[in-house]
Amino acid sequence: MLENYFPVLIFILVGLGFGCLPILLGRIVAPYRPDSEKLSPYECGFEAFEDARMKFDVRYYLIAILFILFDLEIAFLFPWATILREIAGNEAIRLFGFFEMLVFLGILLVGYIYVWKKGALDWE
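Request: output the structure for the sequence above.
Response:
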């Protein structure tokens, strides 16, 4: 019974090896010469002057979420684009595929216009 899990154990060990081996090799082979410049905190090219735990504006998160939402919706166009020749070559589904994508793009456009009219994309 346990011999069935032996390939899984080998897979885990190889995965750990691929993850840990480069780190160990970098630690062993690479030169280690720290100085005050290398060990100093880096933030946008200048010294930090405010608390790192300051509150961000909610609009930042809103724009980030909207970007992810529209980015994912645009990602759904790629599968349709990859089979576009097959859709265009098949008489039975040619119009269906076309109108299906028009409906999808229409919904995407309506959502974009709604977000735009609500002012969610304005940054002041």
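The chain has two domains: 2-39, 58-118.
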